[in-house]
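Troubleshooting: if your tokenizer reports a length mismatch, compare your output against this known-good record of 269 residues.
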Amino acid sequence: MSSVPRPALAIIGGSGFYDFFGDDATTVDIDTPYGAPSAPITVGEVAGRQVAFLPRHGRKHEYSPHTVPYQANMWALRSIGVRRVFAPCAVGSLRADWGPGTVAVPDQLVDRTSGRAQTYFDNGGVHVSFADPYCAELRTAAIDSAVEELPMQPGGTMVVVQGPRFSTRAESRWFAAQGWELVNMTGYPEAVLAREIEMCYAAIALVTDLDAGLEAGEGVSAAAVFAEFERNLMPFKRLVQQAVGAVDGVDTCEHCRVHAGVTLPLELP
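Known-good structure output:
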């Protein structure tokens, strides 16, 4: 085990974000009680720090949003020492003025998924504090790392839907009417699993489309989402790299360390 890298920071990449380091990285194969993660973890250097990278959907997009092994992914990262996680992701916008190419760093989350394993605590009387689902320190680092090419929105509520289908127009209009700004398929249960095993977590969302209820036409397509993500990939990667360098400290912050006195299901290093 002494030869296994021990990065304190991790990036979980979403659609179009399958490779972060190129060939200059160490690969770590991890098995967990919840099965294998989406892909082997790669560890490389970003902004002078050792950083783990895990492609959420697998290296070749093998996993749809509802089949991503979220428990295994978060467990695997924590088991090699990760304490803080940035989660770049593609999102639809529920606001016409937050168009494609906008980056948002959400501060709230609404869960509209179903049937996903969303906890490590299937036994015992454990409750999880989740009023503020994202780490304030990581959010600040991401907001402060804005790049000129991508307009920044320093907040917003992200509603996470089950997928793999996109929203109907009626659903999209309903979400927007609630005052929510973003819609996504993968942000939950990732965020709450990180909280349960005492990892700081923040989503960094790249808007790829206006959701179906905001404009006429054929609605959202996967091809259009991937194309828009690819168009903005280089500045988005640069923003994430700068956010890693802006993180002050590499241990879990006090806000995200919620289980003092509770025996966690993981043998924490």
